[in-house]
Automatic annotation (TrEMBL):
GO terms for biological process: bacterial-type flagellum assembly; protein secretion. It is a multi-pass membrane protein. Its main location: other. Pfam families: Bac_export_3. It comes from freshwater metagenome. This is Flagellar biosynthetic protein FliQ.
Amino acid sequence: MTDTAIIEIAMQTMMVALKLSAPILVTALSVGFAVSLFQSMTQIQEFTLAFVPKVVAVGIAIVISGNWMLHTMINFTNDLFDMIPALLA
């Protein structure tokens, strides 16, 4: 196992983590921005107004992209297991 292989696995791991977290983070960011804009325009400063829509939107994003996320993680794990013999040789 060379240092190049370790760096390649680490890069693949970071890319998969970025891909898996992107739908959730983008959803939370966009809903948070919209709610913050609404609160600043109406001057309503209520904590639940900022929290509840984000939780609902992130839940919907997980339901919509969950199947893709699961398949991405399974494919990555299968690729890692397939690499084991080459890494040991």
